[in-house]
Amino acid sequence: MARKINYLNNKDILKEIHKSKTTFCSFVSDNDHRFDLILLSIDKINIRTIAEAKRAQAKRLQHIDFDARKLAGEKVKLAECAVDYRKVKKTDLVFRIMTFDHIPDEPGRKKTPKTVADHKVKLNFPPFQHYRFNEHNELQCVGKSHWTGGMENGGFALRDGKATTKLAMMWMKLCDRYATRGNVRGYTYNDEMRGQAILQLAQIGLQFDESKSDNPFAYYTAAVTNSFVRVINIEKRAQNIRDDILEMNDMNPSFTRQNMGEWEAQQRREKINSTKT
Predict the structure, then answer these.
(1) Which of 71, 144, 229, 258 shows a CA-CA span of 20 to 30 A to 264?
(2) CA pair distance 102, 6, nearest whole angstrom
């Protein structure tokens, strides 16, 4: 199973992130979890954004039809599966609105709150609501993140979902591949670095905000890099303390400290010789 995971593909990663976030949400119907456009406010829904959402849905339907026909063994081009966005119904559009309106307050969580999120309960990913036009051309809420039950009679729920198994495998494979890089694979504590990176991704993996970027691979790679560097710095500090204690007790320090001392002595000799000449 792990060999089939194409964790380098942003499209697949985004799909698994969406599936994982959906487990923390509640929707009116099964089709309301798919969104066509992400907006920061419901006031941003207008003629322009509706047309943009129609184009996005037409493109998504085009790719779905293309993949289905390819899977069936049909020789087809992507252009042959094109969908006219003008034929997409307004009532079929779903807008994702990034909002904290349905998230309860948590006074005192931060001493100096600066944003709306600082006043709310700490979440595992940015909250949102899904809106759709009904037959009367009115916007109605059809989905909420961190929610269970109906839109009106439901309640806030923080830990009712989980990351999908495939997304977890992607995190693990990403850390395993990074651990084989030439600049980190030689460390004796390589396993600790890899474990710390997996733990970090498990904590922040769903915090990726689709409204700001469509490149989760870069987001995950940066988190893994920071985890590896953090462990290296911690181990180096511990090693320096051990070497200092050994030298204080007239014992030989580690080979790293000895080699560093020889290198520094060589540099000083070369500097003295260069000044004499």
Answers:
(1) 229
(2) 35
